[in-house]
Recover the amino acids of this structure.
């Protein structure tokens, strides 16, 4: 038994060593042309229209057909503030007019797959559809652009965004990977055209969709970045079951899955494939939250809610949960590696993050007593019927609360009924919830903590004008230091003083892939860096 | 006989109407709707107006009675509408998967018949011998073992064995190609789920063959045949087995109909893009149009298979034909 364990550990270490060494070794290599990248996608896209959808299942197979105005730097996607031009020229422009005007110069060598040349009018039509869609058109993220006053094209190669106020959230919001550039003439004829059809300017051209099975793309020979893409094509294969996706990589039916696997699957693949697999890992811009129901006793009382967060040993839990679930990093309301995120010292000042868990739990018990919480009662805990990481973290949370005398019964619901419980029925005392974003843009990402009259995805049922005011001030400030100050205040109020909602642990993204896949770099979101124009296959491997 | 067929055909109408009403009501009892799934289910930011607009587009903002009326009107015109998830016509989505599901169902049925009839017959003829015990053990294991679990074992077994023998792991293809395009590829993908489901299917049929044959073998006419000195194999093949096949045909028919839409987990294990997988996904996504259409399709398959089984009865047993 020990020998088997030792072998497994050696294989794991070898795999990690290979993966750590690999980028350095391959960086100097010249990308090879050709080949078809096969990858598995856990779900199927509802429609082809990026502007209306919110799921990664549309990004993974469809994003390679499109380009954006600007995007997260594909060579440095782990950075949270490195954005580069995609169809604009040069670098991302600095604002003028006191931070209220952004002028983009559009490339003149870009062609749609149907043959027409891209102009600034197409970019304007695209962003008008996103920001102010006409009646009857769904735009899922239009509220991201509440700072935008107008988008215009003074000529065919210039796009001007005028803002109502300077906003640090604007540039990251432009880089959202759903912001596919569409053709104005097609939108003019039919605003719904892109829901069922594809005509992009991306590195790949759409060739075929077999419903429920696969989406195929081929190299776009007219792609505006000369020499790219390296691949002849790709096949995005839909495979819902996680075990099958893991085995597909093991059996080389697919080379990669871009969403993320749990640690056990990584270890299994590394053990089975050794040097034939590489692993890339990153903190993930998704966080699992605890949402108490503010409308129900006893969690209408801030003392009872504070006890909930004080009972949870995040620092200790991180060590053990990260071995079995896709969670790892302890953090506040901001993605841990962003400059607006709290430092460890700042976090340790917040209830639930104190380094001494015994002191925390003693305080929790005292607060429960003061709030008159009935400890003989069993409270309901609403969770989503998904193993990773919901059920694992949910079970752990129940054990954490048991340590201060609180008893919970976990009600695990499929996604539809789970959201119905959060949004309509609200028959829970405490629920799991999550916040999962694409581009790391804390100024907008923390909108989930606003009053429920402002944030339709806040399910605690509370109103907090103080938090709302801080959010507004932060978003209207152009000074990063001031933004950081407001963010700390908002975080303290949300997690501690008002104890509205709590973060458990941030997710951790693990991508094991076949070693012959080169050029793809992990990012903090499964929505990002999926254009595939940099990816190539090392055929000699 | 013609009157019997007409009566059976007319009885299908209330069955289908009842099924339509039931599936419509049950689906609406599931909490949540497709628009919440699409917008809120990913944990990202979404605009509430987007959900409202989506509901208008999908027609789920209308009163339930109007929705039910539209559904029935659609069925009457053989217009099942479009999938609420993909926006593609439901018939197109189903047709794409029907071919694969039908092939797996046929292959699994062949596997089941090839295993079940000989084993069930041997088991009955050699009742209470070690052969009977082995066959019963195999069939009980087949009933006890879920097809999807056997499927997982098959995939893992193939991966481990091929890695050990060939140096690199091999698993069945995960993308479908029709048999007339690439028979080797097609069979290398579908033979494994056919074996996994066919084995369980055969276990039920084996036990049914055994018990039916045992009953027939105790009939007077079999005793008479033996008494007049007929060859034992002839007695079993010509006189006993044919009469014992009635309940076996029923089981095979019902299982075949079940396989057309019921291979829910096995299809996921092997990544088969069949009707079972579509069924699960449409229920998970709250895609009412697709789920309703699929249920109606399965109901129709069941009704038709039952009808054909009854006709088979009449063919196999003249007493039914002339009754």
């Amino acid at each position: 038994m020990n020998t088997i364990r030792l072998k497994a550990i050696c294989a794991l270490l070898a795999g990690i060593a290979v993966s750590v060494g690999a980028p350095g070794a391959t960086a100097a290599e010249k990308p090879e042309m050709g080949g078809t990248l096969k990858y598995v996608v856990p779900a199927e896209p509802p429609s082809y229209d990026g502007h209306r959808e919110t799921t990664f299942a549309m990004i993974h197979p469809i994003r390679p057909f499109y380009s954006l105005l600007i995007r997260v730097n594909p060579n440095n996607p782990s950075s949270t503030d490195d954005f580069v031009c995609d169809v604009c020229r040069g670098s991302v422009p600095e604002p003028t007019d006191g931070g209220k005007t952004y002028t983009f110069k559009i490339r003149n060598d870009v062609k749609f797959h149907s043959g027409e040349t891209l102009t600034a009018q197409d970019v304007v039509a695209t962003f008008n559809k996103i920001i102010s869609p006409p009646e009857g058109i769904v735009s899922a993220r239009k509220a991201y652009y509440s700072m935008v006053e107008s988008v215009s094209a003074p000529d065919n190669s210039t796009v001007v965004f005028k803002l109502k106020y300077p906003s640090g959230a604007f540039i990251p919001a432009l880089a959202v990977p759903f912001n596919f550039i569409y053709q104005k003439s097609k939108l003019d004829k039919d605003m719904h055209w892109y829901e069922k059809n594809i005509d992009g300017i991306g590195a790949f051209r759409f060739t075929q969709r077999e419903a429920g099975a696969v989406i195929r793309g081929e190299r776009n020979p007219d792609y505006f970045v000369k020499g790219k893409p390296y691949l002849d094509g790709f096949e995005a294969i839909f495979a819902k079951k996680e075990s099958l996706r893991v085995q597909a990589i093991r059996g080389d039916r697919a080379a990669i899955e871009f969403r993320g696997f749990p640690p056990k699957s990584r270890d299994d693949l590394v053990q089975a494939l050794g040097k034939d697999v590489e692993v890339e890992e990153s903190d993930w811009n998704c966080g699992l939250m605890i949402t108490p129901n503010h409308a129900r006793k006893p969690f209408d009382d801030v003392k009872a809610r504070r006890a909930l967060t004080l009972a949870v040993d995040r620092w200790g839990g991180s060590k053990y949960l990260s071995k079995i679930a896709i969670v790892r990093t302890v953090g506040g309301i901001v993605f841990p590696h962003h400059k607006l995120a709290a430092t460890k010292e700042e976090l340790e000042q917040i209830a639930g993050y104190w380094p001494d868990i015994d002191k925390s739990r003693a305080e929790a018990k005292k607060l429960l007593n003061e709030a008159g919480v009935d400890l003989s009662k069993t409270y309901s805990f609403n969770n989503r019927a998904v193993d990773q990481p919901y059920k694992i973290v949910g079970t752990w949370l129940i054990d954490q609360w048991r340590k201060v005398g609180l008893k919970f019964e976990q009600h695990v619901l499929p996604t539809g009924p789970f959201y119905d419980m959060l949004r309509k029925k609200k028959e829970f005392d405490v629920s799991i919830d999550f916040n999962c974003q694409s581009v790391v843009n804390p100024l907008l990402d923390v909108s989930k903590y606003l009053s429920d009259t402002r944030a339709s995805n806040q399910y605690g049922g509370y109103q907090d004008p103080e938090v709302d005011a801080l959010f507004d001030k932060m978003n209207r400030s152009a000074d990063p230091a001031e933004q950081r100050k407001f963010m700390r205040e908002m975080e303290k109020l949300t997690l501690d003083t008002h104890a509205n909602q709590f973060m458990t642990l941030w997710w951790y993204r693990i991508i094991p892939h076949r070693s012959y896949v080169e050029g793809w770099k992990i990012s903090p979101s499964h929505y990002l860096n999926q254009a595939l124009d940099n990816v190539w296959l090392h055929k000699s491997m | 006989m013609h009157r019997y067929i007409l009566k059976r055909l007319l009885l299908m109408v209330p069955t289908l109407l009842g099924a339509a009403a039931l599936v419509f009501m049950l689906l609406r009892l599931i909490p949540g709707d497709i628009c919440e799934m699409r917008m809120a289910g990913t944990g990202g930011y979404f605009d509430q107006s987007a959900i409202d607009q989506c509901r208008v587009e999908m027609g789920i903002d209308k009163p339930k009675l109007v929705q039910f009326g539209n559904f029935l009107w659609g069925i009457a015109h053989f217009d099942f509408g479009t999938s609420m998830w993909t926006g593609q016509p439901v018939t197109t989505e189903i047709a794409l998967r029907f071919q694969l599901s039908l092939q797996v169902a046929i292959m699994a049925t062949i596997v089941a018949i090839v295993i079940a009839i000989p084993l069930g017959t041997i088991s009955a003829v050699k009742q209470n011998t070690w052969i009977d015990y082995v066959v019963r053990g195999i069939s009980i294991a087949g009933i006890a073992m879920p097809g999807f679990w056997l499927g997982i074992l098959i995939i893992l077994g193939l991966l481990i064995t091929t890695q050990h023998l060939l140096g690199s792991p091999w698993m069945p293809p995960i993308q479908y190609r029709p048999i007339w395009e690439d028979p080797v590829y097609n069979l290398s993908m579908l033979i494994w789920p056919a074996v996994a489901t066919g084995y369980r299917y055969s276990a039920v049929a084996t036990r049914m063959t055994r018990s039916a044959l045992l009953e027939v073998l105790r009939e007077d006419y079999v005793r008479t045949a033996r008494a007049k000195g007929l060859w034992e194999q002839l007695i079993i093949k010509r006189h006993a087995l044919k009469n014992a096949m009635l309940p076996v045909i029923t089981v095979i028919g019902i299982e075949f109909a079940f396989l057309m839409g019921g291979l829910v987990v096995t299809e996921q294990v092997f990544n088969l893009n069949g009707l079972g997988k579509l069924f699960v996904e449409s229920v998970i996504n709250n895609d009412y149009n697709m789920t309703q259409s699929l249920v109606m399709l399965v109901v129709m398959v069941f009704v038709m298979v039952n009808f054909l089984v009854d006709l088979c009865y009449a063919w196999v047993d003249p007493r039914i034909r002339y009754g």
Residues 102-321 of chain B form a domain with the MetI-like fold fold (CATH 1.10.3720.10).
